[in-house]
Design goal:
The chain is mainly beta and 71 residues long. It has no helices and six strands. The strands form two sheets. A four-stranded antiparallel β-sheet has the order 2-1-5-6, with no helix packed on it. Strands 3-4 form a two-stranded antiparallel ribbon. A hairpin with a 2-residue loop joins strand 3 and strand 4.
């Protein structure tokens, strides 16, 4: 289970995406999460909760694309 959430000023309200594995016979969700920043004009904090229990905090700016892997 991987969870990514946007928060803070300028972020769309309650934006969270969740990836789960093994949710059906020989299947799982895609391993990519796409989050839009909506009308944000400045940096937006992002928190990622990894399966290991690690929480990772990042800051994303409008127009920026990130590829993040579990530390």
């Amino acid at each position: 289970r991987i969870e990514a959430a946007l928060s803070g000023p300028g972020a769309p309200p309650r934006t969270t995406r969740l990836i789960t594995g093994g949710n059906g016979y020989l299947s799982s969700d895609a391993s990519s999460v796409y989050l839009g920043l909506g009308e944000a004009s400045g940096p937006v904090p992002v928190t990622i909760a990894w399966p290991s229990g690690t929480r990772q905090a990042l800051t994303v700016r409008p127009g920026e694309r990130l590829r993040v892997v579990e530390p």
